[in-house]
Design a protein that fits this description.
Blueprint: H1 24-29, H2 41-46, H3 59-63, H4 84-91, H5 108-111, H6 125-136, H7 148-160, H8 162-180, H9 187-206, H10 214-230, H11 234-252, H12 260-293, H13 306-319, H14 324-331, E1 350-351, H15 353-369, H16 379-387, H17 390-406, H18 412-416, E2 421-422, H19 424-438, H20 450-468, H21 476-494, H22 503-513, H23 516-520, H24 530-538, H25 549-557, H26 559-565
Antiparallel strand pairs: 1-2
Helix pairs in contact: 6-8, 7-8, 8-9, 8-10, 8-14, 9-10, 10-11, 10-12, 12-16, 12-19, 14-17, 15-16, 15-17, 19-20, 19-21, 20-21, 20-22, 25-26
GO molecular function: DNA-binding transcription activator activity, RNA polymerase II-specific; zinc ion binding
Keywords: Nucleus
Protein name: Zn(2)-C6 fungal-type domain-containing protein
Amino acid sequence: MSGERPKIEPTRRQFVTRSRLGCSNCKDRRIRCDEKRPRCSNCVKMAKACSYGPAKVPLRDRRAQLQSSDQAPWIVQNSSPQTWSNAAAKVSVTGEGRNPAPWKFIELERMNTFDAFPIMMPLRSKELLHYFRQVGEAFTMPSEQQPEQQLDDCMSSAVQDPFALRNMLLIAGIHYAWNLGDLQTFEPTFLSHKIQAIQLVNEKLSSPSDGKDYMSCANYIITLSFTECCLGNFRVAEAHLRGLMRFIDAHRANEQDLSSEDAIKRELTDRYLILAYNFVHSLKSRLDDFLASTAIVENISRDSDPKGLARVLHRWHIQEATGLAFRLKTIRLFPYFFSSAIVTKYPRHVDVSNILSCLAQITKQHDARFAGSEATYDAHSRYELWDSGGPSRLLSAVVNAHLDSISIEPSLVSQANPGFVSSWSGFCVAIGMYLTSVLGIWNQGSPAESSLLYHVLLILKQDLQTSWLNFKARSKESQALWIWKWFAGALTIAHVQPNDCNKRFRELSVEFLSLVEHCRGVIRQDSEHWPEVKALLHRVVWPHELPKEMEVIEFWNNPILGLLSS
């Protein structure tokens, strides 16, 4: 035993877990911290202030968390169904405070773990997109026939299309600005996508021979015009539309036969343009009438600083009879004009009776302007037309008619009582011309810029020519509507100044006015029967008081001569 050496156990190193949660003073001195709160023992001995930084999750714990492929792109809060009155109360905006519509910001750390978007989504892009999707549910009235599944399909298809997604983000920014009064924290995000859109448009303009995606690029320009108009920058909005006309001319001059898919895209682009044509002219006139009717807003005109004008725009949103939520609900449907993936068939004709009801109400208020003496007519009575909400109802009816024309099944109202049936594009062009040249409400009664007017007049002429082919098979209401659309276009041509009539426009005008022979096949052409013509127009919508009615009668007798004399 004495020869045996005692067995010595190897020393085992005692492993001590290293904590990274110590105070900042102990970390700087590289000494162990006992992590006592509110002050550790070391800081107490040295009489120093003790502070702890934000806790960091250890690497081993982070690895145990869900990977990016296991996480959803964002969290959607499932809220209980709300009634329209409750939803409207939550999104109402008052002069003293701002109560945003109910929605939940998403944690950036969780959002950034998964990204399957076709474009870069910098800053708070995903939050803005989520706002547009979630807050819109609060603006949907339960009584409406619009299926929620169709809206989901529209937004889902837009998210997969780089052009549609950026357009939708810009529209979402406008929706937020109109809801809260300004862009607030979303302004950098909005400007980022706006700059990207402008850069893409400039790239396309630098290579006009490249026809790929030119209609998507045209939609960019229209959206940019919308955004500038909604934020009070009317000059830039109209400049975008003028640039769009040159862009369209450059591409459509050499346009070949379109495939069915491209024909649908072109129709949607034309519709988006027509919507902007009416929207910009409406908002311009409304601003002028608002500024003329109030003494509170001083030293502000249409050319003032856009931010100041944006505040003015928000003020009338709050005061209007229809309420803010009504217009926000309509704006949320704009993606239906540029999300072509959900439209599988060429848009069909629609019953426009609801739109005509809105026009009739506006026309009635127009007649009230001239019912009294000239002394009683002032700027305040002029703005009552806007404050009553008539133009906002018209915009909503126009957008919903577009949805009906591209939906899988037409609305029950259209099936039960066809009434006044027309293509959406031709009729909405005629609406703008009627409100401009007949009532003098849109664009302060002045015709649109010549190149824009040429394009919309061409759309109306093609619609009249196409619908004339089966004119006799149409209902009496639709026949009267055909004549009404021709009158709206003809009076617009009559109001164009000679200096604005280039050769191309004059040739189109002659072709358009020549369609009067079709009208005379329905109405006797004797001049003493103008009351009969007027009665036919009243079956659609027409003012009882028209200051320049004698000029209209002369133009009806010989429209071609009227054009040449101008």
